[in-house]
Write a structure and sequence with these properties.
Helix content: 55-70%
CATH topology of the largest domain: ABC transporter transmembrane region fold
Number of strands: 20
CATH architecture of the largest domain: Up-down Bundle
Number of domains: 3
Structural class: alpha+beta
Largest sheet: 6 strands, mixed
CATH superfamily of the largest domain: ABC transporter type 1, transmembrane domain
Number of helices: 24
Radius of gyration: 36 Å
Strand order of the largest sheet: 6-7-8-3-9-10
Strand content: 5-15%
Distance between the termini: 21 Å
């Protein structure tokens, strides 16, 4: 329902993102933040880790006693006592390891569940405009790839890291107890192990963040390929799309290789330094033992403790790449969570009573972007029970009015009230509870018909669902299905026709028993016969509700008690159908543009009257007979949604007139969607210059909804003008003037983007 514009972020744009600021220490802080609710579990895990660490460092001390007391003095009692203690310690640490595995998995998965829930909750609170400016593939990557590496850290790597750090610290401490001179040598050489990680960890973290960014671009390309499969096959784009995807994979492979190599070097530098220290101290210790300065048991204990240090350093090195990747993933998650919802419920918000008096817009101004306001100083009052249509040219702000009533956005200035209560200071749940919505693209979930209707009122009984389906005139169709209400609708309702999907949406709205019914282009994607039937149902169920409807098909709203006309974000007219026609203002012009068409019952063919053709400036100079001849030459062309009618650079060979549907004229000079889109709808036309010459198309035309067009080929038009040079010259003059006017308009539009 948003009219906010947006374009997908390119690789270049992504590269301009700020570098990640989350350090490894900051990541550990985030870990403990999400583990804090599970303090008891965490304490159990830490206790288990301490018991295991105590056993690991006790073993070298036992070695010292075995060599210096039991073996040297051949004392079997001491030996048996020490072995018994070691065995008991082994049993305790074995049990502790099992306890640690269970509770670390439990607390880690619960913490991940909290993080996922926080992200999903935030996802649901973000404004509609957020989804128009963010690649869905990038968003999915945050929920899949980024969370996967974080989960690995939460469940496994962080505990390995903590355990290794415990072993490292306790073993280093005991080195001084066993032999302080060797310990000093070890301590003096140990900083060598910190140089590599210190120098390379920030670089490794930055590369990990960039790797996640490119992975998101790859995910977006895959998602686009799935969604645009028909277009890719139809236009033979497989080679170009494959090349683009291969380039992305090459970039990903390069960054991933560098990231993982850098992380590995950072971790290995620590372990290799420890090995060097181990060799050095072994040599010095052996020298001291040979000269009687150090006992054999002390040397064995020292070496064993040093092995603990080496193993612990190796384990830290092994998990460091995982932690660095997880910190990059956590940074992207935090970036997402830092997105601010534009609509917030104020603490202490009052519940809205059921609408009984009026809905008011009081000097409302709003813009999706500060540079281009969508509404300017709009004021009107609608009494409870009225049916109101909001109409206007594409981009005029009509859907924005519905967005503000639904409180998907808050006004920048002014206020929207229900029975005098400002929506900003009212609870959102009380507004939703009394509002029914039917959209242009009604979302159905891949579950049963019963559950899809019950979405309107989750606690509704099956009898109430059936009653709503009868009112929506979909019950009889459902009863013909093998599983009736337990029939699954398929992904996005793919097992149902467009009209059936809309009737399910209507039943969903009826189930809420709404005081306020919002209809946003509910029949624009349906054929005329189905649209007419659905409109009759909507009229009937709207009785007793306050109805707000937007549509570009004016023939469907002539019965409304009031029509609000908006243009360029301003309210320019309001009244009833016949009164607005008498004023001959904006509404009259919109009505005239859509008049003069006759559409077949199945919605596949159409005819155009000569009078409608005469309203096209290029044809205004032709008499009625010639206009009738042109009308007879027009060919009906039906296009599904997201189908390219023609592309930039193709030779112009025909003129098009939109009977029903919505067309996007892609305005970028290079023909890409990133340069902005101009929307055309019922009654608009395009490609007029192609009637006079075969110049290459200057823009790309694509359907934004199922569309029925009438087309006229240039060759047929030229045959009509043969032998009448005066008429042809007049048309060419008009065409030249229009071309200059359109060029100026085009340049203005491009400048805005």
């Amino acid at each position: 329902m948003s009219e906010a514009g947006g374009s997908s972020r390119t690789a270049t744009d992504q590269a301009k993102l700020p570098t990640p600021s989350l350090t490894l220490t900051g990541f550990l802080g985030q870990v403990f933040r999400y583990f804090r609710p599970y303090t008891i579990h965490t304490l159990v895990v830490l206790t288990a880790l301490l018991l295991q660490a105590a056993f690991r460092v006790a073993v070298p001390i036992a070695y010292q006693q075995i060599f210096d007391r039991a073996i040297l003095h051949r004392d079997m009692t001491v030996l048996l006592n020490l072995l018994s203690l070691l065995f008991a310690g082994w049993v305790i640490q074995a049990i502790a390891s099992l306890v640690q595995d269970f509770f670390s998995a439990k607390s880690g998965n619960r913490a991940m569940g909290d993080l996922r829930l926080a992200m999903f909750d935030h996802l649901l609170r973000l404004p509609v405009g957020y989804y128009s400016r963010v690649d869905s593939g990038d968003l999915m990557s945050r929920f899949s790839n980024d969370l996967a590496v974080i989960e690995n850290a939460f469940v496994r790597s962080i505990h390995t890291f903590l355990f290794s750090v415990l072993i490292l610290l306790t073993s280093l401490t005991l080195l001084f107890v066993v032999e302080w001179r060797l310990a000093l040598i070890t301590l003096a050489a140990l900083p060598l192990s910190l140089i590599g990680p210190r120098l390379l960890s920030s670089r490794a973290q930055w590369l990990s963040y960039q790797c996640k960014r490119v992975e998101a671009l790859v995910a977006t390309s895959i998602q686009e390929a799935i969604g645009s499969h028909a277009v890719i096959r139809t236009f033979g784009l497989q080679a170009s799309r494959l090349k683009g995807f291969r380039d992305q994979l090459t970039e990903l492979a390069g960054i991933a290789t560098t990231a993982r190599f850098t992380a590995s070097v950072a971790s290995r530098s620590a372990s290799q330094s420890v090995y060097f220290v181990q060799v050095l101290t072994m040599g010095v210790g052996a020298y001291l033992a040979i000269h009687g300065i150090l006992t054999v048991g002390s040397l064995v204990a020292f070496v064993a403790l040093l092995l603990n240090v080496a193993n612990a350093a190796n384990h830290v090195s092994a998990v460091m790449p995982d932690l660095l990747q997880a910190s990059g993933g956590m940074q992207r998650v935090l970036d997402f969570l830092s997105e601010e919802p534009t609509v917030r419920e104020i603490p202490g918000s009052q519940p809205l009573p059921r609408l009984s008096r009026q809905v008011c817009f009081e000097d409302v101004s709003f813009g999706y972007r500060q540079s281009s306001p969508a509404l300017l100083n709009v004021s009107f009052t609608v009494n409870a029970g009225e049916s109101v249509a909001v109409v206007g040219p594409s981009g005029s702000g009509k859907s924005t009015i519905l967005n503000l009533i639904l409180r998907l956005y808050d006004p920048d200035r002014g206020r929207v009230t229900l029975d005098g209560l400002d929506l900003r200071y009212s609870s959102e749940s009380s507004l939703r509870a009394q509002t029914g919505v039917v959209l242009q693209d009604s979302v159905l979930f891949n579950t049963t018909l019963l559950e899809n209707i019950r979405i309107g009122q989750p606690d509704a009984t099956e009898a109430e669902v059936r009653r709503a389906a009868r009112k929506a005139e979909i019950h009889d169709m459902i009863m013909l299905l093998p599983k009736r209400y337990l029939t699954k609708v398929g992904e996005g309702g793919s097992h149902l026709s467009g009209g059936e999907r809309q009737r399910i949406a209507i039943a969903r709205a009826i189930l809420r028993n709404p005081a306020l019914l919002i209809l946003d282009e509910p029949t624009s994607a349906l054929d005329p016969a189905t649209a007419a039937a659905v409109n009759e149902t909507l009229q009937r169920i709207g009785r007793g509700c306050t109805v707000f409807s937007t549509t570009h098909r004016l023939g469907s709203i002539t019965h409304m008690s009031r029509i609000l006309v908006v243009e360029r974000g301003r309210m320019v007219e309001q009244g009833q159908h016949h009164g607005l026609l008498d004023r001959q203002g904006v509404y009259y012009q919109l009505w005239q543009k859509q008049s003069g068409f006759t559409v077949s019952e199945d919605g596949r063919t159409a005819q155009c009257s000569p009078e409608r053709l005469q309203a096209i400036p290029l044809l205004a100079g032709l008499d009625r007979q010639r206009l009738q001849t042109i009308a007879d030459l027009l060919v009906s062309e039906s296009y599904p949604e997201d189908r390219i009618v023609y592309s930039k650079g193709e030779p112009g060979d025909r003129f098009y007139l939109i009977v029903r549907g919505e067309i996007e004229q892609i305005l970028a000079p290079d023909g890409s969607r990133g340069g902005g889109v101009r929307k055309l709808s019922d009654g608009d036309y395009f490609g007029a210059q192609a009637l006079l010459d075969a110049m290459p198309r200057q823009t790309t035309i694509q359907t934004a909804a199922p569309s029925l067009l009438l087309s006229l080929r240039r060759r047929q038009f030229e045959q009509l003008l043969e032998g009448e040079p005066g008429l042809r010259a007049a048309i060419e003059r008009e065409s030249k003037n229009r071309r200059i006017e359109q060029h100026d308009t085009f340049e203005t539009i491009i400048a805005r983007f």
